[in-house]
# Entry
Amino acid sequence: MLEHDATSDFAILGLTFQNIEFMQGAELDKLPFGAIQLDSEGRVKKFNLYESTLARMPQKDVLGKDFFREVAPCADVKEFAGRFREGVREKHLHAKFNYHFAFKQDPRDVSITLFYSDITDSVWVFVQPINEAPIVAA
# Structure
């Protein structure tokens, strides 16, 4: 696993992880990358507009669902879900890796950053497409 300080990804945008941790609704939707907050069981707490557009899944349809079973079952593998579960168990996770989302409607390669929050006992999943033009969320 490639260990990575996820907060450095936000510095270029003038953000800190703490800023993102407390964002709600429209503020979270303005981020130029996918942002998903999962509770310690893997249920979706937050799912921003960028990620909704990228995944082609309405926000309202994924909130409260099990990310690894109902939203992105292709991510229920050791490389992704295993890191998530280990991070929750250890209460520490800062990892960045490339991943292939094998969605039926639009498979794609992305850069994933997983970041455990001890403030909310949750894990943030940040998603950025690789080798693609940025998505402009409507």
About this structure: The chain has one domain: 7-129. The CA atoms of residues 82 and 100 lie 16 Å apart. Confidence is low (pLDDT under 50) at residues 1-7, 134-138. The domain at 7-129 is CATH 3.30.450.20 (Beta-Lactamase).
